Amino acid sequence: MEPIRSGTTTERLIRTLILMVILVGYSALSFKDGYVSYPQKNVDVLKQNLASPESANPTINSKITAEAMNTIKDANTLSAIIEQFGQPSVQESTAAFYFGPAGLAKINIIGDRVTGVQWLPGNKTQLDLLFQKLIGLITGILGLLMIAQFFRALSTKTELTDAGLKVSSQGGFRWGGSPPIPFEAMTALETSQYKKKGWVEVQYKLSDGTEGSVSLNDYVHKAFPEIVAELCNRKGFENPIRAHKQNPPPPDDSAEGQADLESTEAKTSSDT
After folding, report:
1. Distance of CA 19 to CAs 131, 147, 156, 173, 181, Å?
2. Alpha carbon of residue 88 to chain centroid
3. Which domains are present in the chain?
4. For residue 254, what are the contacts with CB-CB under 8 A and spacing of at least 6?
5. Phi and psi for 145 in degrees, rounded to 5?
6. What is each CA distance from 148 to 125, 135, 171, 254, in whole angstroms?
7. What is the DSSP string of 160-206?
């Protein structure tokens, strides 16, 4: 027989790539909002409290939070605050300003003596920033999984030769492939899931007594129709693809049923 060698389907690669780009991109944007954009928006609003806001370019001190205000309020001198939190973002003659990611600490001073402390929250709260960072983390993890899935799809290889069947990736949640399965070791072709999910299971029993099954999927394996047809010809199994074409499911008048029927017809046309 002419060897059949197959990679994965273009549809699988495109879908995985799209999801990967969306998740990684959304993660990057969320982290940017949480760490850069939201704090900078707060600064742009809060710097209106300065004497010369137009010319000011205050730096953001990540140590300055609403919780840190308790420590600042307990300090009697500006030098004590500087020792713990560093130099103010902006210092004027009667006040020192510490810009944090989510707000502004305004410290009224006379010389080095602290005469009053005020916390001015930004439009974007600490919870807003935390939420963006959390979204970035979750979508980033999912994005990494999709990157792994994309390379898994790229590495999918299926071979059917006179020596038998070798599958490197089965798709779905079934990681890994199969050992080489000679034709004589194939015992059955389970097709109950083909109409609904588009896959079949090749059941086998190797010479060492190892029993198992390997999945072939019309979404995962590009040469699925050719491989299934050759397996059925060699082993005398019923070809589920041919049976499905000869005995299509009864029409379903519901909107969901019509959508499923159109999808099935499109897949059948592509297979032929």
Report:
1. 22, 9, 18, 17, 34
2. 40
3. 8-155 (no CATH), 157-271 (2.30.29.30)
4. none
5. -65, -40
6. 35, 20, 13, 38
7. EETTEEEES---TT--S----B-GGGEEEEE-TTHHHHSEEEEEEE-
Q: What is the 3-state secondary structure (H, E, C) of 34-56?
A: HHHHHHHHHHHHHHHHCCCCCCC
User: Is the CB of residue 201 less than 8 Å from the CB of residue 214?
Assistant: yes
Structure tokens at 79: 């030098």
What pTM was estimated for this model as a whole? 0.75
Alpha helices by DSSP H, 75-192:
78-85, 126-154
In whole angstroms, give the CA distance from residue 96 to residue 87: 9
pLDDT in tens, the chain (272 residues): 789 998 999 999 999 999 999 999 999 999 999 999 999 999 999 999 998 888 888 999 999 998 888 888 888 899 999 999 999 999 999 999 999 999 999 999 999 999 999 999 999 999 999 999 999 999 999 999 999 999 988 888 899 999 999 988 655 555 556 778 999 999 999 999 898 889 899 999 998 888 888 889 899 999 999 999 999 999 999 999 876 665 555 555 555 555 555 555 555 454 44
Judge whether 89 and 41 are in contact, CB under 8 Å. no
